[in-house]
């Protein structure tokens, strides 16, 4: 994935990390073909040119696919331990989210956020799946602030481990497919009673259960995304 605009005949400079990856991991050399995308202009056939020790460039040829984006689905996830958070970003990208928002809740007990690393993980996962965009990964915000500024028209699938929410598929069956949604996953210590009440007080909130077992945040995120994609998203077909 690159940042520059893509067009026939354009030359796109790669950053040192990309040049290193293509040369030393993919073992590509000048003249080798590859596919490029930037999240806006579709997928382009390109050739690697000017491969140096720290830099490289692509020469663009022709467009192989028009730009596509997945459903308007965001994931809001509390900061959890680094390895789990990285898994969540990778799997959420594979499962087609458009945006990942990190959130700080009362019981959040992790304070690391290497946004650059999380963004790189999202880009690498996007490249591997063949999607033509990578989700934005937004830095941490408090849950209160997020709820106070909740955008009109976006539904919120609230994954509530407390056990009294309806099963996810039942709760989502009333949702309209073309509506923007987000999925909310709490921290390792779960949501406080006050937070649960505040989330449920939001008109857009749809509380759901992911079954009778308490899942780790990464398992909960993958399960919720899969259920949403099957009920309302692109698992249903084009
Ligand atoms: N409160 C739990 C505890 O400390 O025992 C753990 C919370 S769980 C590790 C993290 C998050 O995953 C929860 O806040 C919730 O969003 C989601 N989650 C886990 N299991 C769930 C379930 N069975 N139904 C709905 N959400 C679940």
SSE blueprint:
Elements: E1 11-14, H1 16-25, E2 33-37, E3 43-49, E4 56-65, E5 73-78, H2 82-94, E6 99-104, H3 115-129, E7 136-142, H4 143-148, E8 155-159, H5 168-172, E9 181-185, H6 193-200, E10 205-208, H7 217-231
Parallel strand pairs: 5-6, 5-9, 6-7, 8-9, 8-10
Antiparallel strand pairs: 1-4, 2-3, 3-4
The structure holds S-adenosylmethionine.
Mean pLDDT over the full residue set: 95
Distance between the termini: 24 Å
Catalogue the ligands. Answer: S-adenosylmethionine
> Helical stretch count?
7
Strand order of the largest sheet: 7-6-5-9-8-10
* Uncertain residue segments: none
Write structural notes for this entry.
This protein has 238 residues and is α/β, with parallel strands linked by helices. It has seven helices and ten strands. Strand 2 and strand 3 form a beta hairpin. Helix 2 packs parallel to helix 3 and helix 2 runs parallel beside helix 7. The two termini are 24 Å apart.
Features:
238 residues; alpha/beta; six-stranded parallel beta sheet; four-stranded antiparallel beta sheet; 7 helices; 30% helix; binds S-adenosylmethionine
Provide a concise account of the structure shown:
The chain is built from seven helices and ten strands. The chain is α/β, with parallel strands linked by helices and 238 residues long.
């Amino acid at each position: 994935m690159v940042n520059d605009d893509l067009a026939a005949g354009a030359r796109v400079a790669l950053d040192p990390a990309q040049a290193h990856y293509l040369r030393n991991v993919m073992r590509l050399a000048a003249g080798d073909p590859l596919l490029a995308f930037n999240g806006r202009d579709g997928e382009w056939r390109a050739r690697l040119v000017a491969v140096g020790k720290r830099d490289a460039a692509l020469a663009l040829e022709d467009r192989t696919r028009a730009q596509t984006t997945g459903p308007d689905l965001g994931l809001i996830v509390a900061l959890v331990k680094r390895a789990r958070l990285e898994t969540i970003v990778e799997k959420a990208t594979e499962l087609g989210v458009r945006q990942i928002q990190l959130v700080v809740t009362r019981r959040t007990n992790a304070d690391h956020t290497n946004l650059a690393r999380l963004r790189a993980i999202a880009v690498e996962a996007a490249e591997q799946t063949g999607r033509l965009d990578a989700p934005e990964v937004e830095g941490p915000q408090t849950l209160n602030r997020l709820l106070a500024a909740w955008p009109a028209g976006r539904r919120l699938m609230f994954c509530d481990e407390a056990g009294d929410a309806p099963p996810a598929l039942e709760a989502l069956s009333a949702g309209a497919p073309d509506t923007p949604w987000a999925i909310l996953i709490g921290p390792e210590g779960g949501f406080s009673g006050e937070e649960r009440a505040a989330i449920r007080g939001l008109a857009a909130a749809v509380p759901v259960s992911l079954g009778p077992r308490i899942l780790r945040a990464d398992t909960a995120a993958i399960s919720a995304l899969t259920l949403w994609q099957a009920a309302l998203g692109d698992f249903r077909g084009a």
